[in-house]
## 1
Amino acid sequence: MKTQVFGLLVFIALLSCSSTANASRLTSEFFGNFVAADTKNAGTKWAVLVAGSTGWGNYRHQADVCHAYQVLKKAGLNDENIIVFMYDDIAYNENNPRPGIIINKPNGEDVYHGVPKDYTGENVTANNFYAAVLGDKSNLTGGSGKVVNSGPDDYIFIYYTDHGGPGVIEMPGQPIFADDLNRVLLKKHTANAYKNMVFYLEACESGSMFEGLLPSNARIYATTASNATEDSWAEYCPGYGAPEEYGTCLGDLYSISWLEDCDVQDLRSWTLEQQYVAVRKRTLEGTKFNGSSHVKEYGDQSFSGNFLSVYMGSNPPSISPSPEPCPSLSPPTSPSPSPISSPPLTVVPQRDADLVHLHHKMRTSPLGSQDLLEAQKQLNDELNHRQHLEHSINKIGDILFGFENNFQVLKNVRPAGQPLVDDWSCLKKLVGVYEKYCGSLATYGLKYMRDFANICNAGVTADQMVLASIHACS
């Protein structure tokens, strides 16, 4: 009882810092945070962290996830409530200049130590991810068996970092399509298995995973590294900040923006909305000379005034930031800027980060060495693959719609608020047809998912797609 009275007095004192005009809004917003932070009333905090890629060239995704684990662990989440998906082929990779150590920024601390190995290697799959989120142990294949066994008073935080394309994000084995992801999230909602859920997503065109699909009344708040049509960006890359000996990008811009923000903030007084604004600003500034990436919000924004501690843990920071008058009471529509440092002006589109890695390997390998020959072959293979994709998909468009209409149909972007495609089963079927007759899309080919979606939206049948694919790729 004394604790509650003391908390109420603190609440009243903080209100005295605000203007009368803002008192009503601040009362509602702060009281919501006060109740949510009360350990007697708050449910269990759960987290699912996913890096869906493999290989040294994708080092940054697993580094991002390991860093996220350290943020949550430092803030007080228990390992039993943190579920980690990562292939785990980076820490002891032959290319790692510091075996057993992963860093997420130049000269950064080791973020690999202590990370749970829940789902690694061949157990990093879409189906295991779905089962873990849904708390469905019966549908798991391998791994630790850890799932989100949450109830109606619990809070769930999901962070996913990887390559992507319109309506799709990558995962070893099979990708995750936007309709399947939202189906799983809404099934969790229907089961009344959480109070609020927060989802952070890093991938190219990541906004398309929620655009027109995630409703505003399911208690799910999502932010994405880009809108539905833009690349996301790799950060701390060779030649642009990464130590030469790594030869690969160490992080992703959106990801390191929210992670480094958490590193310097007191999560107990920094809101989801404040972090969104800070991350959006840093991400856009980091890409404005190279392209653009607009961090976006989706879903239920009614609780974006919640403190990060509600989802990430409420331990006090090791070093408290300098006190400011009423820092947590700034209006959510224009939060105070975060003190996270501005990134270098040169970043790399995620899809081209592997090219940067291969160019670096060629530049640093001895003339005539096996490493040089392998890097040259890998680069040539990748460039040939990209050329094949561009040629074959354009040829299919010419066959189906004619040369004059091809570009207009394939590259059409629907208005904001509409999903990528009307019939997701059609999209998956046509992608399967293409891969059967023309070869795998692989990572880079995900960028053409909008082309396939527009072929579906135009009413093309699977039989028509078979004929066009055979003609284009024979």
## 2
Amino acid sequence: MAKLWGLVSCSLKPHLTSLFLCTTKPPSISTSFHHFSSSKSPLTLTLRSFSSVSAPASASASSPAITFVETDDADPYPRPHIPVRAFFISTSVDLKSLVDQNRTHFIPPSSRMTNYVVLKFGNLKPVPNDLGATLSGSDCGFMVVFQYGSIVLFNVRDNEVDGYMKIVEKHASCLLPEMRKDEYEVREKPTLSTWMQAGLDHIMLQYLDIDGIRTIGSVLGQSIALDYYVRQVDGMVAEFTDINRAMEKTGTFTMKRKKLFQLVGKANSNLADVILKLGLFERSDIAWKDAKYSQIWEYLRDEFELTQRFASLDFKLKFVEHNIRFLQEILQNRKSDFLEWLIIVLIGAEILISVYDIAHRSAITSL
């Protein structure tokens, strides 16, 4: 670059000297330099029609100014994004029967985690210059299915999603009336200076392999399932809020004991599913073994705020638990009051019978 500017300055020095030191209008200069480039960033420099300030407007209009065109370093093998879609369709999936019917697509696990399976459909796209194979731009798709009902699809087109859903629905129980959905994006860039780079609604990696798919899928599967359970608890919170407002107006409530027990069971089962089925506090085995995947796992958990959302869920469940305990005490007091009145009635009846018997005996004796 220094040589380039040295050549330019040497060529223009006489003309610039005459331009500022002479009173006469210098002739127009038309000089072009081409093919000056460096090994890193090609540079094209074009110089045309320098004239003095007193030149006519028409002359300056017909002569464009200096133009610099510089190109940045580009990835020799650009990779399009990899769409990632997460779904929550049921509360349970029979993974054994799913694998038995899709044995040719099954990828054996690399860890002791048994609450999910990975299925591969299609072939990866080969890349020249020993960069291996890439999921980007290929017809290959991956499906991660979790036992608790989440499905995470990698590189699957919109018009193919229903077909993948039907594969799992055959082995799912307790299908939800409304399917939950979330979307994310993964980008591959082999020339990335670091292993991972975060972005807005996406993550960029040097490459995405099967362990990366397992790691990303585990977090997205937990996130979409947690969203379902949060909505379930929100429904219970809203129901107890209505009960409390009605109690505020009337001073009593009309909930049956059976309904209250159903809410108790629902709250307990939701908490157990989140902790036990989702394994929300269990670290991925792959993340334990390799720091690269640990970085992905920790970033995505922070990105999807799993810890904060569970804390919010736990707070709402404590609110529900407090209301349940309060209503149970009221129902228990109602039952105690009923038994007390029943005892009073029985004692009163016994007294009346005794009084009647005494009166009857007195009447017989007087005769």
